[in-house]
């Protein structure tokens, strides 16, 4: 059970840290990579073809990265738009407006936390222990 957290640039690492903090909290295994679909498309293709269960792709500006990963895998891809310019609206729209047939789940701008939680919810469909941890997490929030 492994998640790939991939960011388009090292400059996105603050958002990647929000993701990994939650994955650590839930004890979910992950790898972290920097790979740009624009600058290094071959690396992105290679990563997308690896056997990860869920991909979390973090990108600002013209955020092709989540969509390009989705083009190479049928595993779920969660995109995190980063507010590099235009308060992140450019990246949000790039990630949300995928052509029909190749979906990417878009979380809110800079919302690495929700990307991690959504990845955990996907993994929890087949994992009772994770499901219980999610219930506890919600319970704490309610309190
Ligand atoms: N959106 C993408 C992609 C991509 O989608 O392939 N590659 C880099 N970027 C984004 O460019 C912004 C500026 O990157 P630099 O700081 O390296 O110039 C980052 O937010 C990155 O995610």
From TrEMBL:
Family annotation (InterPro entries): PurE_ClassI, PurE_dom, PurE_prokaryotes
Domain PurE per the UniProt entry, residue ranges: 1-143
Gene Ontology BP terms: 'de novo' IMP biosynthetic process
Top-level taxon: Archaea
Catalytic activity, reaction form: 5-carboxyamino-1-(5-phospho-D-ribosyl)imidazole + H(+) = 5-amino-1-(5-phospho-D-ribosyl)imidazole-4-carboxylate
Its EC number(s): 5.4.99.18
Gene Ontology MF: a single term: 5-(carboxyamino)imidazole ribonucleotide mutase activity
SMART domains recorded: AIRC
A Pfam entry, by short name: AIRC
UniProt KW keywords: Isomerase, Purine biosynthesis
Pathway assigned in UniProt: Purine metabolism; IMP biosynthesis via de novo pathway; 5-amino-1-(5-phospho-D-ribosyl)imidazole-4-carboxylate from 5-amino-1-(5-phospho-D-ribosyl)imidazole (N5-CAIR route): step 2/2
Residues reported to bind substrate: 9, 12, 39
Enzyme class: isomerase
Functional summary from the UniProt entry: Catalyzes the conversion of N5-carboxyaminoimidazole ribonucleotide (N5-CAIR) to 4-carboxy-5-aminoimidazole ribonucleotide (CAIR).
Sequence similarity: Belongs to the AIR carboxylase family. Class I subfamily.
Name of protein: N5-carboxyaminoimidazole ribonucleotide mutase
Protein source organism: Thermococcus radiotolerans
């Amino acid at each position: 059970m492994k998640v790939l957290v991939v960011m388009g640039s090292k400059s996105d690492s603050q958002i990647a840290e929000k993701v990994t903090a939650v994955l650590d909290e839930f004890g979910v295994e992950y790898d972290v990579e920097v790979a740009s679909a624009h600058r290094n498309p071959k690396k992105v293709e290679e990563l997308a073809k690896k056997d990860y269960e869920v991909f979390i792709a973090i990108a600002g500006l013209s955020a092709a990265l989540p969509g390009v990963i989705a083009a190479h895998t049928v595993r779920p891809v969660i995109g995190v738009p980063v507010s590099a310019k235009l308060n992140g609206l450019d990246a949000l729209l790039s990630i949300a407006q995928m052509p029909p047939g190749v979906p990417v789940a878009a979380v809110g701008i800079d919302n690495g936390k929700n990307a991690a939680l959504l990845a955990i919810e996907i993994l929890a469909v087949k994992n009772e222990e994770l499901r219980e941890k999610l219930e506890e997490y919600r319970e704490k929030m309610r309190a």
